[in-house]
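A favour, since you know our structure tokens better than I do. Go ahead and set the record down below.
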Amino acid sequence: MVGPRPTKPRNSSPERTTAAIARRLFLTKQRLLGPLPQRATREALRSIPRDLGYVQWDPVSVVAPGHVLTLWSRVGNYRRSDLDALLFEERRLFRYCAHADSIVSAEDLPMFRSYMARYPESLSSSWGSWRAQARRWIPRHTDLRRRVLRELRNGPLSLNEFRDHARTTRSPGGWGSGSDVSAMLFHLWMSGEVLPVGRDGSQNVWGLAGPWLSSSAAAGTMTALEAERRAAERAIRALGYASRKEIQFYFVRGMYRELDRVLDDLLRESVIRPIEIEGLPVRLTRYIHRDDLGLLESLGDETDEPRTSLISPFDSLICIRDRVRDLFGFRYALEMYVPQSKRRFGYYVLPILHGDRLVGRIDPKLDRETSTLGIRSVHAEPGAPTGAEVSSSIAGSIERLAEFLGAERIVYPRHVPSAWKRSLRYAESPHEPGRGRALTGRTEV
């Protein structure tokens, strides 16, 4: 229930900074500025959802699943078995709907338990009619709920192993695009009764959530207002600065019911402060967390040792398209969802981040049969840096990706930006013997 609106803080004069420093603040908080960790340990992996709030889970594997790439761009070449161990053995990470289907930290369990306990009332109006549909659908399927939970008491199951799945089809008034069993699993997941506890190929393996969630050291449950406050602070800190709209969209997406009240409380207590960014549109009020004011003051306008990263299409860096456009002058769209004839850059495009600029994009595809990473197109942004050092750094990042994926060579297209040709050298085809670039020594073979 919404109570009286708190009064505004007396001293609410904004912090001020430039777009260049704001961009570096954002990248620092997103773990994309500065050198990679010396070792890609489990603790390094675990720290990414903690710092970012979430890592979006996406199984599309044109190159590698989206979450695999998001983690790789921040910790370097890691063992995927370490990620599985954190998710499915040590239970320090788990999956929940934090932005979309996401990897989140078990340290945030008290907050997520609050959303789970209140589902579907925890959904905000941004879900449209889903909350109303859930209110109607769940009570009408109590027998199915009991059957699904009873089957899971005998052990985890993938979707096609549930007895009712094969003979249950979607009704005109049903939920989602799958069977009633898959719809029930979604609702049980959102309410914290089941969780993905493993993978069977491309399918989730579902298990009862109790043994997983109760084993965490993060005990307790927050009130609705406490959960929103924690989520808002986490979102602002992960983004470096954020507007109200960006907080809502970023983390925890679609579950703010009293955000205005939360922001008023945080402002009155000086936990957050308004910030004005020179060169960005002034249509939005933006906030910075007090714990990041020192970092803001320490950042300069230039990057000392630029690092080059390849960014997943589902990366939290580029999920807020307007922010990316305003801050980097970079427009991005997922062209896998448009017809091939209308694609401008390619099917599975990875932006290239060099230092604090998005300088280009590549469209890669991993050919697992020939162990070849094919780069189907390379594009440079207008005004992208052209020096040999930049070109070599981009090539090095692509080579690190190939090594991480287990590819033995890289094939570039005939046409690449002229300033980068020296490093991104053309090869005819991954299927022609003797063509392509071997990874060792970066030489033609």
Summary: Residues 23 and 101 are 27 Å apart (CA to CA). The first strand starts at residue 15 and ends at 18. Confidence is low (pLDDT under 50) at residues 1-10, 171-176, 428-435, 440-445.
